[in-house]
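Exercise (ungraded).
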Amino acid sequence: MALAGLTMTVPPGEAFGFLGPNGAGKTTAVKLLLGLTAPTSGEGWVLGRPLGDRETRRRIGYLPELFRYQPWLSAREVLALHCELAGLPRSSWRAEVQAALEIVDLAGRAEDRVGTFSKGMQQRLGLGAALLGKPELVFLDEPTSALDPVGRHDVRQIIHSLKEKGTAVFLNSHLLTEVEMVCDRVAIVDHGRVVASGTLDELLGGHAVRIRVTGLKPSERASLTGFGDLDDDGEWLTVRGLDPERVPELVAEVVRLGGRVYQVEPRHQTLEDRFLQLLGAR
Amino acid sequence: MPPVLVFARLTLREARRRRLLLALLILTLIMVASTTWGFSRLWDIRVNGRPPGATFVRTTASQIMILVAFMFTTVIGLAATVVSSPSISGDLESGQALSMLARPIRRADLLLGKWLGFVAMVVVYTGGAAALEMLTVDWVTGYTPPHPLAFVAFTSSVGIALVTLSMALSTRLSGLVGGVIALVGFFMSWIGGIVGSIGLALNNQPLIDAGAVSRLILPADGLWRGAIWSLEPALVIAGVRAAGPGAASNPFFAADPPPTLYLAWCVVWVLGLLALAFWSLRTREI
């Protein structure tokens, strides 16, 4: 069994990051949601319709992890083909194709055969195809795997723009920093099961601050628990779950207690920290 | 346009863009030109030191045309298999199918559309090449086969049978493996037909039965017999019949068209295999 008991909510206008190590079942989940793979048992719904519902696919865009398009067609022809397969009105094709080409920065290569494209350009083309018809939900499976840093930045901008337009984005990735930059919610999957999910703040435990301080007695250090969860390793005092607005208040209290403050630095757990922590505990 | 026709058009467009149609056109023109030259030389034959009569030339042309048709049918069978065997598996392996099948279409649309595209290619190519060959042969020898449309229908059907088999295999096997299996089936069917002819000559029932079974398993040879019949002049049929069963067992001779029941079986065979292919593609992971 590749997947079991997955429940995920991706509201309109939000990006949902689906994370997991290689072989965790991320791509299988996306294929199940698109009806490309049938579940061995159980049921599921996407956009309020059962898995595999053909009509629902009119409202969905998809960039597969394995992105390949007819090398003997031009970029414009590939997009027109997808307009036709998506059932878009013929009168809208021209504008849809042109808009997609411009969004993914391929307008200058629109008439070139896809066979002459680099992998990165083919991935851009796939992203353009996924955006045709203004879908309500877009599945992006490792959308930047073949892109250079500029391309990755562009994809982040595209995802932000989709969110602004109210599109729900399901981002399947193992590039954690990228997910952290664009996603509102995250689920971490391992061995086909969700091991953690929620907003980034929920998952990462909010903000923290580290203070390098001397001159405080243990009891005085312990009295700071009112500011948040304390992690005292002697030289450094870490306070977790602290509202950033209260950092000056914390420092003032340390000074009032007679402490000598050398350094104050905001600290928050990265998604990578949390990811490794969760998967290390499996 | 319905998705089925979109994929049929895409298949034809791919053949054109990849220059398959151009290659076939050039090879066919070379083949027709060279065979026409050969047919025209029939008038140079001397019978007892005298130029041949029109009946001699036309009868000889009819038998040579059967040999040309054999080569032609083999080329169609090979080309149909080689072109269609990677059709579905290639799309699945490359990932092209992923983005297309995520659209609001059925998997059957992809399969049926491609099948229709290949069938259209087979029929148009067979019709065009056969018409060209027959017209030039008529021009240089004055011979026209008795059933030219039936020839196109039977020869196209050989190609359609092989396209269907290759595509059904392509839903589960790689293009290479599926193509090899289909080609082996094609040649085994042909050899099975010859075995049946030998059985007829020797009046050996097990060999006759083996030939009949091979024609049922893969109807390539059975349909090829129909193509031979369509080219056979009545004069030759009457002559061979008069010569007895030994002569009639010649694998390049057919006195009668395939029975209607056999043709019905061919239709069932193609439709059944298509249904199997639909099921196979529908139930596999993409």
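Further reading is listed at the end of the chapter. For now, observe: Residues 149-164 of chain A form the longest helix (16 residues). The interface with chain B takes residues 31, 34, 36-38, 54-58, 60, 62-64, 66-70, 72-73, 81-82, 84-87, 126, 129 of chain A (CB under 8 Å).
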